[in-house]
Amino acid sequence: MLALIQHRLWQVVDEARANVARMLGADAGEIVFTSGGTESNNMVINTAIAHFQQLHPSAGGSDGDAGDGGGGGGKPHVVTSNLEHDSVALVLEHLQGLGAIDVTVVRAAPGTCAVEAADVAAAVTANTCLVTLMLANNETGWVGDGASCSVGDGCSFGNAVRLASGCSERLATMTCRP
Ligand SMILES: Cc1ncc(COP(=O)(O)O)c(C=O)c1O
Questions:
Q1: Which of 17, 56, 69, 155 shows its CA 20 to 30 Å from the CA of 170?
Q2: Is pLDDT of 172 > 70?
């Protein structure tokens, strides 16, 4: 009896996974359910950093220069904004405090509260392994007007900069919407 219930539960989860994948245009195998936003954000941040460290085993060495342009040395670098939820901001602050990563905080424009794509692009270096930006603010209710699109443009530009500097892997982009 227990096995039957268990089987049915797996079926329900798998159906939900397939539905979410279809909604996002992703493969079901790419969908991971978590307990909530905080766990998801932590998972993405730590995975992006671990991935960078795997690709660059010598990274995090003595130079600590996020902008070395060569994609070889230096620490993993993360671009974020000054609007982020604590589940992102505090994790990045903590890792930076440990000396494990470099972080660039892009400030939102005062008039619009928008993070400008050009500012994001300018912050990207050869060591940038993650751009993490809020798409909608959980406190003010502000929703970026086309933010994911314009930030996507900024990241495309950042990828072009990285390719030109000999760094082959693409940037990870995370936008959080509560
Ligand atoms: C953008 C964002 N990220 C993360 C969280 C935290 O989510 P959770 O409470 O599910 O851990 C929130 C909560 O409001 C949020 O607005």
A1: 17
A2: no
Is 47 a residue whose pLDDT tops 70?
yes
Domain with residue 84: its CATH number is 3.40.640.10
- 62 pLDDT tier (thresholds 50, 70, 90): very low
Instruction: Provide the number of structural domains found in the chain.
Output: 2
Select from 38, 81, 134 the residue to mutate for testing ligand 1; criterion: most ligand atoms less than 8 Å from CB: 38
Closest CA relative to residue 126, chosen from 165, 80, 170: 165
CA–CA dist 105, 82 (Å, integer): 6
Mutate to test the pocket of ligand 1, among 85, 133, 135 (most ligand atoms within 8 A of CB): 85
Ligand 1 atom nearest the C-alpha of 134 is 1
pLDDT of residue 159 exceeding 70: no
Q: The dihedral of CA 125, 66, 99, 58: what is its sign? A: positive
